[in-house]
Amino acid sequence: MKGIVLAGAIVALLGLLGLAIPVFSTSQTKDVAKIGDLKIQANEETTHVVPPILAGGALVIGLLMVGAGYMRN
C-alpha cells in the first residue's frame, strides 16, 4: 500500500471519528499542595469540541488522497 493511500485513510478515519464524536473531555490530575508526606490533588476536566466543518473537511481530503493514490497506479 502506498504512503499517500495510507495517510489518506488515516485522515479520513480521523474525520469520520470527528463527525461521530464531536465533543470529548479529558481529565488531568494536578498537585494542589504538598506538606511532608501529605499531598492534596485536584482533578481538572476539560471539554474539547471538534468543529463539524473541520471533521468534514478532513474526511473529504482523506478520501481525495486515497483516490489520488489509486489513480497514480
List keywords for this structure.
73 residues, alpha+beta, 2 helices, 34% strand
Task: Describe the secondary-structure layout.
Elements: H1 3-20, E1 23-35, E2 38-49, H2 52-71
Antiparallel strand pairs: 1-2
Helix pairs in contact: 1-2
Shape: elongated
When the domains are counted, the total is 1
Q: Tell me the number of strands.
A: 2
Distance between the termini: 11 Å
Strand content: 25-35%
Describe the structure.
- This protein is of the alpha+beta class and 73 residues long.
- It has one domain (3-71).
- The protein has helices at residues 3-20, 52-71, and strands spanning 23-35, 38-49.
- The chain has a two-stranded antiparallel sheet.
- A hairpin with a 2-residue loop joins strand 1 (23-35) and strand 2 (38-49).
- Helix 1 packs antiparallel against helix 2 (52-71).
- The chain is elongated, with a radius of gyration of 20 Å.
- It starts with a helix and ends with a helix.
- 10% of the residues are buried.
- The mean pLDDT is 92.
